[in-house]
Design brief:
By secondary structure, the chain is α+β, with helices and mostly antiparallel strands. It contains 4 helices and 8 strands; from the N terminus they run αββααβββββαβ. This is C40 family peptidase.
């Protein structure tokens, strides 16, 4: 029996479409309910873990510390001197952007993750009181995070 493998391009489209289908449908939570993404609950990392596992059968880890360290991904972009956002020319749909949070004991101080969906846009679920996930302009989001001292760390790719 031959195992069907998706092309990287098709995999990227499927994962972006899958996450975008949930736009503004989920309630943010960090409780155990966060694992019930398909039932209307999530946080940033459970959304990404669910998408990669459900759509592509790739276990990237269940939270941002696991995801930023996962051996299934590779680093694509890190901020160069004076830069506070990724180089969009290096990104592909489905890449994950990691940001600092408020816990410096986590690897890299990571606290948030978003998915690049193309055309300078990202999607993710923030604890902002709104249904999520939401689509945002990448550079604007990175600038706001930087001003909140929760800046961009790096981008990782899990689809090859």
């Amino acid at each position: 029996m031959m195992k069907f493998m998706l092309s990287a391009e098709l995999s990227r489209k499927r994962i972006v479409d899958g996450v975008c289908r949930l736009e503004k449908k989920n309630t943010y939570t960090q409780s155990e309910q966060r694992k019930n993404v398909d039932r209307g609950f999530s946080d940033c990392s459970s959304l990404m873990a669910w998408a990669y596992m459900t759509i592509l059968r790739i276990d990237i880890g269940s939270d941002t510390p696991e995801q930023i360290l996962s051996l299934k991904g590779v680093d694509i972009d890190q901020p160069a001197d004076g830069h506070w956002h990724p180089d969009a020319a290096r990104l592909k749909a489905g890449d994950l952007l990691f940001f600092r949070g408020s816990d410096p004991t986590r690897p890299f101080g990571v606290g948030h993750v978003e998915m690049y969906i193309g055309d300078g846009q990202i999607i993710g679920h923030n604890d902002n009181g709104l249904k999520g996930p939401t689509i945002k302009e990448m550079e604007t989001f990175c600038q706001v995070r930087r001003m909140e001292n929760k800046s961009y760390i790096k981008t990782r790719r899990f689809i090859f």
